[in-house]
Amino acid sequence: MKKICNIVQKYTCVSVLFLCLGSTFNTIAQDKKIAKPKMIFIVEGKEVTEEYLLVLQKENKIKAMHNGVSKKEKKAIVKRFKERLDNNFVMKIETFSDEEILANKKKQLVKSKSKRKEVKVAKKEAVSASKIKVGDTIAAFALEDINGDVLKREDLKGKVVLLNFWATWCVPCLREFYEIPEVILEPNTGKNFVFIPVSVGENRSTVVKKMTELKDRGVDFNVYLDPKNEFYSGYRKQGIPLNYIIDKNGVVVYISMGYNEDNLQKLAAKIKQLVD
Question: In what residue span(s) does the Thioredoxin domain sit (predicted)?
Answer without folding.
Answer: 132-276
